[in-house]
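Database export, one record per block. Field names are fixed; values are copied verbatim from the stored entry.
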Amino acid sequence: MRCAAGLEALGFKRGEVLLVLGDNRPRLYAGMLAAGALGGYAMPAYPDATIDEIRHFVHEASARFVLAEDQEQVDKALELREQGSAIDFIIYDDSRGLGSYTSPGLTSWEEIQNRGNENLGDSADALAQLVARAQPDDPAVFVHSSGSTGKPKGVVLSHRNLLSGVRNAYEGKTFGFGESILAYLPMAWVGDFAVTMGAGIALQFSINIPERQETVLQNLREIAPTFYLAAPRSWDNLLTTIQVRVEDSSWLKRRSYDLLMGAAISAEKRKLAGEKPKLTHRLLSPLCELLVSGPIKDQFGLTRLRGAFTGGEAMGEDTFVFYRALGIKLRQLYGQTESSAYNAIQGIDEVRLHTVGRPLRLL
């Protein structure tokens, strides 16, 4: 709330937009939440977005406020201002490299917090009024759907939109209260906002943020989340890493992997086809968990997963079957930006290849 009060002290008003530039960082998430608390909304952009792409976003919503992760993102905002964009304030998180910058409106996160403290003072009433300001039909976020033609299409989602989607997904057993998640998905993607901010706050998740994108696999192992959503390419990359490590192991380990995972994959294919696994599959299953599946899941932080999902595009059959055979109950989720990311999901006992499950019940 200090951030919200600080933004208000700068002149941020109801209905205004906060352009967010950067990678997943705690303060950037807090800034998005602060904008929503004031009756405004955040517009996150991909960290590698070009000047032309960001210009489109700025002009689309007449953004006066920018929350930037670091010097690289601050430079983008300053360049846009020099080119005529009406950016008044640029708030930065990481101050490295910005010591000599003297541009007007350039403000540190710490300064915003200090302004917020001054704005709130010691008044409990002021804090309560700030907390109660946002209404269900106020905008929460401005995200973009790539669409099929032209530039990305902007979609404004309200708090009601987002929380209705979370409720529908919760009723569809997508996740439960108190999940532990790794917030590594691009903040500009509706899936991240719907899970990290929407479900994360409403259902009291433990939200863990990776140190950097390069450390996601390491952080995944350290955290061992209970809920994990990833695009098919991420699951593919993880599978490639597993296979490379197997190939680099001893001859005995490779042979054990080929035999036991081969049997597990064959058994999973039979299950997905509605058939019972063979007796040899059932006999080898405990051995596979002990020698192969269990160690792999432990190595990559997948031991506590209750909900494992893929979405965003179609996943290859081999990849999908592999994770199911590994003992991870991977399911397909289908969502659209316009409907707050939750449309259809495979039920726990209704997983079929090349489907996305039943539409979620609207509540």
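Remark 1: The CA atoms of residues 19 and 66 lie 5 Å apart.
Remark 2: Residues 251-272 form the longest helix (22 residues).
End of record.
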